[in-house]
Amino acid sequence: MCTLSIPVSIFTFSIAINCCCHSNRVDYAFSLLATTFKRGFVPDVVTYTTLIRGLLSQHKSQEARLFFANLIKFREIQPDVITFTTMIDGLCKTGHTDMAFWLFRYMEKSDCEPNTITYNTIINSLCKRGLVDDAFNLHSEMMEKCILPDVWTYNIIIQVLCNFNRWEEVSLLLKQMIDDMKISPDVHTFTILVDAYSKSGKLDDAKYIIQIMNERGVYPNIVTYSTLIHAYCSQGQMDGALAVLNTIKSKKIMPNCYTYNILIDAYCREQKLDIAMDLYRKMASDGLSPTVVTHNILLHGLCQLGKSMEALTFFFKIQGLGHKPDIVTYETLLGGLCKNHYVDKALSLFRTFECNGLIPESNTYNIIIRGCLRSKKYDGACKLVDKMIDCGFSSDAATTSVLRHLLLSKAQDPTLVALYQKCLH
């Protein structure tokens, strides 16, 4: 356009700058900003807000703060509510809540009235830090200033109140929300309550919330139902959990991997591996691909039942199907093999660790070292300790305890004494 002398305006440049920011090329965006000055254009508040958002999206919060401060210092623009809220949100997300709160108060002094989104941003940050009373005070302040809260405002505060089991205040806030403010709870509000009641062991209350949802025409989604399934599982009521799964399917709501993982984990804990494996196979019939978490749950279940060799066979099978293991997969298998006296198999598996692009961690080394010690493979343990120390790791309390116990029965073994000294240092 510029080469062909087609007229461009600040609006054209703002669109291009926005595109660059969304493409994570904020460096190009600033190059375009420089070009606007060369062409005699004056960037407006929208352009500058876009650049601030671009810096924040690329985790350049310090640069964003400096850029914003210079805009105010040199009076390039008068920031509007969107500019302030964008900067406040960025500060909150990077853990600078105190600075965000200061900017919030500066915003008010600058005759720029915060809106509902601004308040929600600050309230959310305060709640995440556990400052519930401060969040409550800000909520009261916004009501006094006739800035109306929305469903998100209430969801934020209800969530944190549930986390602290402040049920009486939850009830009062829900009453204010529905009766006074005429704001209808959404599916997220109800899901928060179902989750909170479930975690507190109040299964009947959780089921009652589902009933209220249906009566109000707010239909539970897969997250709500998965939360209820988790509640049944945590109380060992597996028939109830399966009934909820059947309800989901009857309502044409597709269960997701998280739903199945909850059930599979529960059946593994109940030592009902056959049912867990049936559910694993049903995932495929529902068009779902098991995640690494699914496989880790099953491997852990097999190892807990002493079926370490079956776990190893399952591991090689899923690897052959293209599923990639993670550090937890290996540590689960190594622990199971060592516990069930298959230390040679564990050592062989340990050697393949880096072939899958993984790097052993401190816990990985400690698991295999303990396995070697319990199987009297002291030389192997010694080599692994050397390697672990070279990697900057050290023995944990469990490994040191195993060594100390062995020394009590074999005090004269020089290899064990040397190994114990290495671990202490």
UniProtKB/TrEMBL annotation:
Identify the stretch annotated as signal peptide in this record. Answer: 1-16
Q: Which Pfam families match?
A: PPR_1 (PF12854), PPR_2 (PF13041)
Gene Ontology molecular function: mRNA binding
The answer, when asked if Repeat is one of the entry's keywords, is yes
**Highest taxon above the source species:** Eukaryota
Keyword list (alphabetical) reads: Repeat, Signal
Q: Where are the PPR repeats?
A: 9-43, 44-79, 80-114, 115-149, 150-180, 186-220, 221-255, 256-290, 291-325, 326-360, 361-395
NCBIfam families cross-referenced by the UniProt entry: PPR
The name this protein carries in UniProt is Pentatricopeptide repeat protein
Task: Give the organism the record lists.
Answer: Heracleum sosnowskyi
